[in-house]
Design a protein that fits this description.
The chain is α/β, with parallel strands linked by helices and about 220 residues long. The protein has one domain: Metallo-beta-lactamase, Chain A. Helices cover about 25% and strands about 30% of the residues. It is built from eight helices and 14 strands. It has helices at about 40-45, 60-65, 70-75, 85-90, 90-100, 170-180, 200-205, 205-210, and strands at about 5-10, 15-25, 30, 50-55, 80, 110, 120, 125-130, 140-145, 145-150, 155, 155-160, 185-190, 195. Strand 3 (about 30), helix 1 (about 40-45) and strand 4 form a beta-alpha-beta unit. The longest helix has 12 residues, at about 170-180. It is globular. The termini are far apart. Bound molecules: zinc ion (ZN) (2 copies).
Length: about 220
């Protein structure tokens, strides 16, 4: 029986959530969205005696990828990204100029994330769902009763859609078809803010109940 451990590392000026996802039995782990504070991520992997195997990116906004270059330099692990977010990824310096941030350019992704495939670490397996709208290549990684959703869905809110490649109707459709179809008890790990569940968001998220408009 696979045993999942999730460590949330809130970091950087956008309070981004980087997740360490570990298979407890084998101590193999991945980093989802290594944002600004690469030293925090590397120190945590080290302190927890984990074997880092890959970087999985939910999307390529700068606050989620700033740490990629340093983590790869220290560990040599492969980078996974959906190709529709490749222009954002390659434009990290331009994103930095919009946000008032400077970031070293990460090496190119090693692997395209393919919708419908399974990403594995140790005995853990996560299915890939495409959830565009916040960015064109946003993905959700779903398995073991949890969903890593990037900036598509937050506790009580949804992702912003005013950045290049964003679209409100597309985001709502993604959430409804790819996330709200998950069981209510599914734990949602977002790119910012606290964890929640699909059921709580279905019942109370104003953007999903119709109480608030996305644009
Ligand atoms: Zn984002
Ligand atoms: Zn973000």
């Amino acid at each position: 029986m696979a045993d999942l451990r999730v460590i949330c590392l809130v970091n950087g000026m956008f309070a981004e959530n980087c997740y360490v996802v570990a298979d407890v039995n084998s101590s193999r782990a991945v980093l989802i969205d290594p944002g600004e504070d690469a030293q925090l991520f590397l120190r945590t992997i080290d302190e927890e005696n984990l074997q880092l195997e890959a970087i999985w990116l939910t999307h390529a906004h700068i606050d989620h990828i700033m740490g990629v270059a340093d983590v790869v330099e220290a560990t040599g692990v492969d980078i996974y990204l959906h190709p529709a977010d490749r222009p954002l990824y390659d434009g990290i310096e331009q994103q930095g100029a919009w946000m008032g941030l400077r970031s070293s350019k990460p090496p190119p992704p090693d692997r395209d994330i393919v919708v419908g495939e399974t990403l594995s670490v140790g005995d853990l397996n996560f299915g890939v769902r495409l959830v565009p709208g916040h960015s064109p290549g946003s993905v959700a990684l779903v398995g073991h009763g949890v969903a890593f959703v990037g900036d598509a869905l937050f506790q009580g809110s949804v992702g912003r859609v005013d950045l290049p490649g964003g679209d409100g109707a597309t985001l709502l459709n993604s959430i409804e078809s790819e996330l709200l179809t998950l069981p209510d008890e599914t734990v949602v790990y977002s790119g910012h803010g606290a964890e929640t569940t699909i059921g709580v968001e279905r019942r109370t998220n104003p953007f999903l109940t119709g109480a608030a408009s996305i644009v």
